[in-house]
């Protein structure tokens, strides 16, 4: 038996607007509670009251851990350039083709209600409802990342959250993890995080990056490593640390408001989508591993090639249903777009769907925002579980019954030739910071060649690190911060030391 949905709109609002309890019994006096006399004790038989109070207690689902705080909108991706020599996915097959999508922007370390203007990387996750299934690009607004071993992710995120005893954000935890020699591979990401780009003015004013190398192939079976860049058409705009601190108090939801209100008034933000491509042969001659997402691919050698536009032009009708319950995962992919062997990406292939089974429930893909729109899903083995609401495939057998007809479509893609060949003993391996300054080179280039061209940007990087690290209780730790940034450039280390020392003096702490 199915619900009489004809009497409801698509959001579940009853068309005659008669209000009922959740079992459909009409509510006559919404605030009257059954009781003995006017002021006597209440009666357990009052289902309307129990329904109301009990459901309220169950309104919250666990917030994401990490990326709890975020905003989102719907829109479309439009192909503007032919890249069928690189990728055979149907979403790219025709110039002008549009694919519906939903994007969620987020901060990383803060709780669901935390301020928009914190210094923290921003998430930029998009789900494309393609005709070949849902494809998720779960990206950040920085081109690189802090770690290159997935095993370090929980510890790293813990250091961005609250101290287990004080329940406070803790600069000592933050810098202790990041200055640990084996973790200093984060230096490049730290230089971006503490640069002018560390606090975007709005979600509309920042870029998105795949960070990882992905592996895309064409219909001939040829493949490339690919990085995706989404460049904002609104221009990059950011806050200084001081501006951000004031706004965090005055209007903590400023980025959320900015996104919603701009879309509401028809000012749809857009991003131009580019790819960088690399052959397997080229990857063998890189000074770093193609699977190391702490490194950028030099644009002179791997130029940006335009692909299309991402446009966000539709606000959600209901934040919880469409954004809080949205489930993005790098493992949600479509033909011709594969994960590479990057170990962090491989770890992520497990982590997201696992988090969503816990956060939303095992049938999270039945929530409308997560359903594959084009053909839905049918698999008689994926059955039952909490909150199964799609009819559960009715009387279909729950195994591949030999008397039933199933269509297993033949893979029409050519087998990729010249595959990567993996060979070696199964050994435990920790990809620690490399000896020498190899992992510092790109950070040094950023400091000396890029920030030097922007008036005062080097000094602001030093200032932003110093005012954060000055919060460390331990001066030994502050010295480690200075030593680490001195490896990027001595001037940077000196500037940080001078400012931390000045702040320490005014707080009655020793100079460095
Ligand atoms: C080993 C490394 C990583 C692990 C284990 C990991 C794990 C997670 C988990 C469990 C969530 C919450 C998912 C949910 O509850 O729906 C999440 C969210 C997210 N992660 Fe990661 N992550 C890793 C690295 C990265 C990297 C490198 C990027 C970007 C390149 C990234 C981008 C995001 C984004 C954008 C979200 C928020 C998605 C949304 O808006 O729902 N993560 N991550």
Automatic annotation (TrEMBL):
Active-site residue list: 67, 140
SUPFAM superfamilies, sorted: Heme-dependent catalase-like
PROSITE patterns in the record: CATALASE_1, CATALASE_2, CATALASE_3
EC class (word): oxidoreductase
Pfam families: Catalase, Catalase-rel
Organism domain of life: Eukaryota
InterPro entries associated with the record: Catalase (IPR018028), Catalase_AS (IPR024708), Catalase_clade1/3 (IPR024711), Catalase_core (IPR011614), Catalase_haem_BS (IPR002226), Catalase_immune_responsive (IPR010582), Catalase_sf (IPR020835)
Cofactor: heme
Record field: catalytic activity: 2 H2O2 = O2 + 2 H2O
Gene3D superfamilies to which the protein is assigned, alphabetical: Catalase core domain (2.40.180.10)
A single MF term (Gene Ontology): catalase activity
Domain called Catalase core: residue spans: 20-407
Function: Catalyzes the degradation of hydrogen peroxide (H(2)O(2)) generated by peroxisomal oxidases to water and oxygen, thereby protecting cells from the toxic effects of hydrogen peroxide.
Protein family per UniProt: Belongs to the catalase family.
Name of the featured protein: Catalase
Classification lineage: Eukaryota, Fungi, Dikarya, Ascomycota, Saccharomycotina
């Amino acid at each position: 038996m199915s619900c009489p949905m004809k009497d409801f709109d698509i959001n579940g609002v009853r068309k005659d607007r008669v209000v009922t309890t959740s079992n459909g019994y009409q509510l006559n006096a919404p605030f009257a509670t059954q009781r003995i006399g006017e002021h006597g004790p209440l009666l357990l038989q009052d289902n309307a009251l129990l329904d109301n109070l009990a459901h309220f207690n169950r309104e919250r689902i666990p917030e994401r851990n990490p990326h709890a705080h975020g905003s989102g909108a719907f829109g479309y991706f439009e192909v503007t350039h032919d890249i069928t020599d690189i990728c055979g996915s149907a979403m790219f097959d025709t110039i002008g083709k549009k694919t519906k999508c939903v994007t969620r922007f987020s901060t990383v370390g803060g709780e669901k209600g935390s301020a928009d203007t914190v210094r923290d990387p921003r998430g930029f996750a998009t789900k494309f409802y393609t005709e070949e299934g849902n494809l998720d690009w779960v990206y950040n607004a920085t081109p690189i990342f802090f770690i290159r071993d997935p095993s370090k992710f929980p510890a790293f995120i813990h250091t961005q959250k609250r101290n287990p005893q004080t329940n406070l954000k803790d600069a000592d935890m933050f810098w202790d993890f990041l200055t640990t020699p084996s973790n200093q591979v984060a230096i490049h990401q730290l230089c971006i995080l503490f640069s002018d780009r560390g606090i975007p003015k709005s979600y509309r004013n920042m870029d998105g990056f795949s960070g990882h190398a992905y592996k895309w192939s064409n219909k001939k079976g040829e493949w490339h490593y690919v990085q995706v860049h989404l460049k904002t058409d609104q221009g990059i705009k950011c806050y200084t640390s001081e501006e951000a601190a004031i706004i965090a108090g005055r209007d903590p939801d400023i980025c959320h408001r900015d996104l919603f209100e701009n879309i509401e008034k028809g000012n749809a933000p857009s991003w131009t989508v580019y790819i960088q491509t690399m052959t397997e042969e080229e990857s063998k001659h890189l000074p770093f591993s193609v699977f190391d997402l702490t490194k950028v691919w030099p644009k002179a050698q791997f130029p940006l090639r335009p692909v299309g536009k991402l446009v966000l032009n539709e606000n959600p009708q209901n934040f919880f249903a469409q954004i809080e319950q949205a489930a993005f995962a790098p493992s949600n992919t479509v033909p011709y777009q594969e994960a590479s062997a990057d170990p962090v990406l491989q770890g992520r292939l497990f982590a997201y769907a696992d988090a969503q089974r816990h956060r939303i429930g095992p049938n999270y893909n039945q929530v409308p925002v997560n359903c594959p729109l084009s053909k839905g899903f049918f698999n008689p083995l994926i059955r039952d579980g909490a909150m199964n609401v799609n009819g559960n495939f009715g009387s279909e057998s729950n195994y591949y019954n030999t008397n039933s007809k199933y269509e297993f479509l033949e893979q029409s893609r050519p087998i990729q030739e010249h595959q990567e060949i993996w060979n070696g003993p199964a050994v435990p391996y920790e990809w620690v910071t490399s000896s020498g300054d190899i992992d510092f080179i790109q950070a040094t280039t950023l400091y000396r060649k890029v920030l030097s061209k922007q008036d005062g940007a080097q000094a602001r990087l030093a200032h932003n690190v110093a005012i954060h690290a000055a919060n460390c209780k331990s001066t030994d730790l502050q010295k480690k911060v200075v030593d680490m940034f001195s490896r990027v450039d001595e001037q940077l280390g000196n500037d940080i030391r001078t400012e931390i020392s000045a702040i320490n003096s005014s707080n009655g702490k020793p100079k460095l």
